[in-house]
Amino acid sequence: MLQILYNYLLSAFRNIIKNKIFSLLNLLGLSIGIAACLLLFQYVYYENSFDTFHSQSENIYRVRYDGYRNGELMFACAAAVPAVGPAMKNNFPEVLEYSWAFPTDGIITTDENASFRERKIQVATPSFLKMFDWDLSVGDTSALSKPFTAVITKSMARKLYGE
User: Fold this and answer.
1) How many CB atoms lie within 10 A of CB 132?
2) What is the mean pLDDT of residues 124-149?
3) Given pLDDT bands bounded at 50, 70 and 90, which one contains residue 87?
4) SS3 for 77?
5) Model pTM?
6) Of 130, 138, 141, 159, which is least surrounded by CB within 10 A?
7) In whole angstroms, what separates CA 76 from the centre of its chain?
8) CB atoms inside a 10 Å sphere around CB 80
9) What is d(CA 91, CA 82) in angstroms, rounded to the nearest whole number?
10) How many Å apart are CA 162 and CA 144, to the nearest integer?
11) d(C-alpha 22, C-alpha 42), whole Å
């Protein structure tokens, strides 16, 4: 068995030495094909792994808003008009819940009259915490159901209120 394997390898090596250019082209094509396959696999893996840490990730969808003029795509946006969520819930029984988050910035004032200018604030509907699995240290998923309430990170709580 070992002798047969040795003969095959010897024959392959002699063939590579005899046809150098042809062998180089074959190896180059094989290398490019494997590299393209690995890059494609990595891209597909990344796209399929996005936000899968939520328990209901297979049932969460993002609505896109694309603008067309005369049949031509003018812009593509990953946001939708706020009225889309209620309309979809009223018209499609498959839609159990909807939520939206709107990025903004502004000034935050604490009870101690300290003010901070913050960027990357998200204004969201109360159902946001029910749809997504975010661990809350204090409180529950009804945190956004009352006016003038907020959910903040631990680092933001330290910044606003100290230790």
Assistant:
1) 18
2) 81
3) very high
4) strand
5) 0.59
6) 138
7) 17
8) 16
9) 15
10) 23
11) 30
